[in-house]
Amino acid sequence: MPADAAAKGMKLERYASGGAMLLRRVASGKIVSASSHLLFRATVLATLALVFLFTFHYPSLLSRSFTLSGAGAGEGGAAAHASHRSLLMSSSAASVYGGAAWEKEVRRSAKPRKDGGITVLVTGAAGFVGTHCSLALRARGDGVLGLDNFNSYYDPELKRARQRLLAGRGVLVLDADINDALLLEKLFDLVSFTHVLHLAAQAGVRYAMEAPQTYVASNVAGLVSVFEVAAKHADPQPAIVWASSSSVYGLNTDAPFSEDHRTDRPASLYAATKKAGEAIAHTYNHIYGLSITGLRFFTVYGPWGRPDMAYFFFTKSIISGEPITLFRAADGADARRDFTYIDDVVKGCLGALDTSGKSTGSKSGKKSGPAPLRVYNLGNTSPVPVTRMVAILEKLLGKKANKRIVTMPSNGDVPFTHANVSHAAHDFGYRPTTSLDAGLRHFVDWFVDYYKLKLDIPKIAKVAGAGKPSSSSKKKKKAAAAMSASS
Ligand SMILES: O=C(O)[C@H]1O[C@H](OP(=O)(O)OP(=O)(O)OC[C@H]2O[C@@H](n3ccc(=O)[nH]c3=O)[C@H](O)[C@@H]2O)[C@H](O)[C@@H](O)[C@@H]1O
């Protein structure tokens, strides 16, 4: 009690009502007048009415409140998390979650359908690679829970369509952001995930010049958010497999790119954030004993692909007759990419999950020994000039592209990529088998179907053995795999 108040014979009383704090001064030893009683009652009633109105109009805010107080964080921690969230999360991720029905759905989706199945949290599950991996995991009986923030980097409706596709196979994809640490904690409280397949990221090489901060928020802060929860909150810790990128090789000129080559000269901020991710992975493995595998994807393409990628928007432009711009390296050579078909990449992702090994740390901060820290190229091992990719599309679509050839602008692009996949082949039998002709055939079929186009696709193109490489191409692939395995 304040000394001056005591001296005046006054005391302070606190009333808590419906979350509102009322302060009342009472004159000690004096009779409180009837009018002040009336005023007090009116104030209490008005407060209760306001609380009732707030509850009625803003149930979503209240339903989220458990995440700010009930996930084991203290008041200060919750406030810090809250401000962290508002800084980093996209507004579209401000989702409503919680409640018994929601928890039941989460558990159902994450439950393996077969004995010995793994339980995987897939971030970026409504993305291109995320959707295909989630479908493949579910198809073999594993438990899968997805999350995605459905941002508008490219058409969110395509992401919603992928979400519906997954829902049809029993996979729930939550509207949630990886920077929402409290939600991640909640999910690990509900489910003992054995693995995290972390694919959520800000993708795209050239867009990094336009929106640098989104790359930092997703690829650096978001990655740390996932590692933090896995290292310090999950019990037991899961093994983590995450998406790095072929772009980490940057200005490296040794080919084919091997995991042992230099990756300290990134050409774009995108590449730099992926390289930073690999360094951050080292730290979390070293300190907390997290089992971490980084996968360097090489220009992955296929059905349900990304509209921001060249093969996708070139297809659209060829169909509509709009011009396309082809980049040529400064030395006059066509840009080349080791285009890798989605089904091959999915096999690589599942192989990496299955061989990831266990994390060795615990919530208490102690680790029982070193945990696996791995990085693998997942490419096709046969780079193709972008002009050739366009020629295949022209043949498939039966229409010539309106081409404009320019010198590659200095916007983070690299002139070529070429993967050596010998480590992935050795450790989990990774062997890409899909030629660019066959893979683009699948893509065009999907594209025409998805956008309900009335196109007369030339029959001749259908012969190209889509998806099933001919025996000669099989032999060629085998030889290539053997060559890269011995290099
Ligand atoms: O492998 C990777 O690590 C990366 O692959 C792709 O990046 P990129 O290979 O640049 O794929 P696209 O943007 O589809 O470009 C493919 C090729 O087309 C060329 N291109 C692109 C755009 C264009 O207008 N014209 C053009 O000739 C590029 O120079 C490049 O050689 C993805 O967009 C990245 O998210 C991924 O991490």
TrEMBL record:
CC per GO annotation: Golgi cisterna membrane
Record field: catalytic activity: UDP-alpha-D-glucuronate = UDP-alpha-D-galacturonate
Record field: transmembrane: 38-58
InterPro entries per record: Epimerase_deHydtase, NAD(P)-bd_dom_sf
Alphabetical list of SUPFAM superfamilies matching this protein: NAD(P)-binding Rossmann-fold domains (SSF51735)
Main location: Golgi
Entry membrane topology: Multi-pass membrane protein
Top-level taxon of the source organism: Eukaryota
Matching PANTHER family: EPIMERASE-RELATED
Similarity comment: family membership: Belongs to the NAD(P)-dependent epimerase/dehydratase family.
Name of protein: UDP-glucuronate 4-epimerase
